[in-house]
Design goal:
The protein has a domain of 70 residues: Helix Hairpins. 66% of the residues lie in helices and 0% in strands. The chain is built from 3 helices and no strands. The termini are far apart.
Length: 106
């Protein structure tokens, strides 16, 4: 992961002082990271929900899945805050190439 995206909250980069081109690249990377994180978090949530509804799944497994989901939510919140800082400094949400793709028609 890029150092600008992975720094701790105490060492936040000064995004406003960055070159706009570099900042736009950073924003695109952060958006992609955020989307991937949301997708993975949703899978963990779905697993937790299925386990919660299945009487054959042990309480320990359910608790582990719940804990993993909650930890992921905290990490997602921190990453969302950094993404917000980047977008604020850039002044707009960049369009990603994959956002312009036509959905498959079936």
């Amino acid at each position: 992961m890029n150092d600008e995206l992975s720094g701790s909250d105490h060492e936040r980069p000064d995004y406003r002082s960055m070159d706009r081109s570099r900042l736009a690249d950073l924003a695109v990377a952060a958006i992609r990271e955020h989307r991937a994180r949301l997708s993975a978090d949703q899978e963990v949530y779905d697993d937790w929900l299925r386990a919660s509804e299945d009487a054959s799944v042990s309480a320990d497994v359910k608790k582990t899945l719940q804990g993993e989901y909650l930890v992921r939510q905290e990490k997602s919140e921190a990453q969302q805050s950094k993404l917000s800082d980047i977008i604020d400094a850039l002044g707009f949400v960049p369009t990603l190439p994959e956002d312009n793709e036509e959905p498959d028609s079936e």
